[in-house]
Design goal:
By secondary structure, the chain is mostly helical. The protein is 63% helix and 2% strand.
Length: 412
């Protein structure tokens, strides 16, 4: 494998995860307040479109999995390891947040019924939203969508890996067109699809975003799309994204935004010397990116708890919520998410994930990490920092490190 393919921006893409997560949180618990106090209209409109941070996660999910699992999962043992790794990755904090939402926000649930069952098995987004379906933790619908992505990934990767660059390029264009055409009028995702699409399960409507990420990830691992790493491209895509959020009418934003997210991820992947990359790779931003999953799932129960103690209508309370939920998400990430993930992996005899080296990744994030990765590429091995090894091909999904050799089966 060409060493240029090892230029994945581990820390930077993790930093982007933090921005996307806060984008969603501010949309839920700050955009209305910000507009009510008279923030400039472009900023207010951007915040009002914060729900689109979910599109970033869907595209990034496909990109990361394609980058990490470069060889098709052809055997049952490989697929089993993949699905167990996904379970260990998402379920511990998912179930914690679900139970916390019920305990703290039980006033929103009149009575526990059969309608509560789908969310425990990640099927709530497959059922048309009705009064009989209970969403104890509303943002968790996205994990039901991700479950479909994980199930479809082995086939999606096999098809993408067997396709030529030309066919993959055509697939990217087709998927981008589907996203723009299909999602522009279908932009209210959280509880129901538009009337004309009400019979289509929500995960299927979001599948093109994931497949776009897979296609772009395979192209990047082949060393393609390097032109997106040129100096002016990443700032141009960034400004185009902000302009899309601030200028376009709300009904036309979702489709173009999803496509721009794919281009942004691929551009960050190749922008080795970008100032934006260095900013996203700072220790604090990388840590927040690591805790972004906990932040996303705990945002609702944390807000319920916070507003039950304090008056949620005051400016101080609205502002104070963000550092509180940030500290809570970091603590959950360090104390619950990663330890539970490692415990599940050990129980099934799997290799350790990125969690064991997470603090080391934070300690050497930024320009120092870039230097170590480039040194490793020149040597064809792993960079060394403080006497500890950091593998050259990182596990982008967790901003930590994959422990397998570059050509071995992924640890997940």
């Amino acid at each position: 494998m060409d060493k240029r393919q090892e230029r994945g921006l581990v820390s930077a893409l993790t930093g982007l995860r933090a921005i996307a997560a806060y984008f969603v949180v501010v949309f839920h618990y700050g955009s209305t307040f910000a507009n009510s106090v008279g923030v400039p209209w472009p900023i207010g409109k951007i915040l009002s479109n914060g729900y689109l941070g979910v599109s970033f996660f869907f595209v990034l999910s496909g990109f990361i999995l394609a980058y990490n699992y470069r060889s098709p999962l052809t055997t049952w043992s490989a697929k089993k390891a993949f699905f167990l790794a996904r379970f260990a990755r998402i379920y511990p904090v998912y179930i914690l947040a679900l139970l916390a939402s019920f305990s703290i926000g039980s006033r929103y649930v009149e009575s526990v019924s059969m309608g509560a069952i789908p969310q425990f098995v990640l099927l709530q987004a497959w059922v048309p939203y009705t009064a009989s379906i209970q969403y104890w933790n509303t943002p968790a619908w996205t994990l039901s969508v991700e479950a479909l992505f994980y199930i479809s990934f082995p086939l999606a990767l096999a098809l993408a890996a067997s396709a030529s660059d030309k066919k993959l390029g055509i697939a990217v264009c087709l998927l981008a067109s589907i996203i723009v055409i299909g999602q522009t009028p279908a932009h209210s995702f959280e509880r129901s699809a538009p009337a004309g699409l009400g019979w289509v399960p929500l995960p299927l409507l979001r599948l093109p975003e994931f497949l776009l990420g897979v296609s772009l990830g395979v192209l990047c691992t082949r060393g393609r799309l390097q032109s997106l790493g040129r100096a002016p491209v990443l700032p141009a895509i960034t400004f185009a994204t902000l302009g899309c959020l601030a200028v376009l009418p709300n009904g036309t934003v979702p489709g173009p935004f999803g496509v721009l997210m794919g281009l942004l991820i691929a551009s960050v992947f190749w922008s080795a010397e970008s100032r934006i990359r260095r900013l996203l790779s700072t220790r604090l931003v990388v840590l927040l990116g690591g805790a972004s999953y906990s932040l996303y799932l705990l945002q609702e129960p944390a807000h319920d708890l916070f507003t039950s103690v304090f008056d949620g209508r005051t400016k101080l309370t609205v502002i104070a919520y963000y550092p509180m939920v940030t500290l809570l998400s970091i603590a959950t990430f360090v104390v619950v998410e990663e330890p539970a993930r490692e415990m599940i992996r050990r129980f099934f005899g799997m290799r350790s994930s990125a969690g064991a080296e997470i603090m080391q990744r934070i300690a050497i994030a930024g320009p120092e990490m870039d230097r170590l990765e480039m040194d490793a590429q020149r040597r064809g091995g792993a960079p060394q920092a403080g006497g500890a090894a950091v593998v050259a091909r990182p596990d982008q999904e967790r901003f930590g490190v994959s422990r397998e050799p570059p050509h071995g089966p992924p640890a997940g």
